[in-house]
Write a structure and sequence with these properties.
By secondary structure, the chain is mostly helical. Helices cover about 65% and strands about 0% of the residues. Helix 1 packs antiparallel against helix 2. It is elongated, with a radius of gyration of 14 Å.
Length: about 40
């Protein structure tokens, strides 16, 4: 998904990620509808 998010997950070592560490995932989810919206026919 994103190198920054992957690095944060790998360094979490069993703890919950902070809001700052989860921001790349939140941005990906928020942009999902825009990026995968079908083109008009």
């Amino acid at each position: 998904m994103n190198h920054t998010l992957l690095t944060s997950i790998q360094q979490a070592d069993g703890r919950y990620l902070s809001d700052l560490e989860l921001r790349p995932l939140a941005q990906f989810v928020a942009s999902f509808e825009t990026r995968f919206k079908p083109l008009p026919a």
